[in-house]
Amino acid sequence: MKKIAVLVSGGGTNLQALIDAQGSVLNSGRIALVVANNANAYALERAKKAGIATAVVLKKECGSQKAFEEKLKEVLAEHEIDLIVLAGFMTILTESFTSAYPKRILNVHPSLIPSFCGEGFYGLRVHEEALRYGVKVTGATVHFVNEIPDGGEIIAQKAVYIEEGDTPEILQRRVMEQAEWLLLPMAAEKVCASM
Ligand code: GAR
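Above: the input record for the complex with glycinamide ribonucleotide. Below: its predicted structure, written as tokens.
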């Protein structure tokens, strides 16, 4: 069993999908730790309800990006983590962090990369931009994380149709239900099984 850490910033519905997949889709790894960069993240409640250890690492308390990343590394090492999953983790990690875990960090992004991705494209913004552009198909991507924002090797993608009358919120929900919540546990299993 590989030990997985899930890094979160907000609601944590993708964390919930991973928790719910344990023992069914997710068999080769288990979630050993949830780390938030925001003390109020509802994802922390989800972790506690599932009996998973939690940690909060705040950038402003660390003082710099470098110190923040060093603190994250320390917490991950304490728990002997094998795989890091970014599930709505709304901060960019620099090369000093990503290079310590080659092909050991996954991220879920709510579009079909290389569309609507990179710096500044996160959360609802991604769906606002997809609707503004007028694409008829969007989706979600799970990829390895390297030093290029949303630029690592793609592991899995799933397309989702845009419908008449979609708002960013409606589209976000459909992309989660039809793509992210299915894709992320499957990708985590695939990577754990191959480690
Ligand atoms: C998800 O849609 C995820 O793909 C997105 O934020 C949301 C988090 O929701 N991530 C990004 O935009 C990363 N660039 P959640 O907290 O309910 O899982």
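Notes for the reader.
The helical segments are 13-21, 42-49, 59-62, 65-78, 95-98, 124-133, 168-194.
The chain is about 40% helix and 25% strand.
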